[in-house]
Amino acid sequence: MADLHINLAGIQSINPFWLASAPPTNSGYQVQRAFEAGWGGAVWKTLGEPIINTSSRFFFASL
């Protein structure tokens, strides 16, 4: 298998495939599962107390 290790600005990773800050990275448990599945990293914008989404970012309009 090909070696996909990278070093970007001093950040080392097993591969270049990272999860962005989004619902798949809402908790430490989800990030741990992503690492177990082979993802190279994850980006978190907010750390600390659990964040509760107060409004949905999805919208559906019927015609």
Top keywords for this entry?
63 residues, elongated, alpha+beta, 14% helix, two-stranded antiparallel ribbon
Briefly note the structural class of the backbone: alpha+beta
Share of residues in strands: 15-25%
Order of helices and strands: EEEHE
- Mean pLDDT, nearest integer? 81
Number of helices: 1
Radius of gyration, Cα only, in angstroms? 16 Å
Most strands sheet: 2 strands, antiparallel
- What strand line-up does the widest sheet have? 1-2
Any idea what the shape is? elongated
The percentage helix is 10-25%
Number of strands: 4
* Gap between N and C termini: 50 Å
Q: Low-confidence spans: pLDDT under 50, at least 5 residues?
A: none
Helix and strand layout, with pairings?
Blueprint (H helix, E strand, L loop, with lengths): L5 E3 L2 E3 L4 E2 L8 H9 L4 E2 L21
Parallel strand pairs: 3-4
Antiparallel strand pairs: 1-2
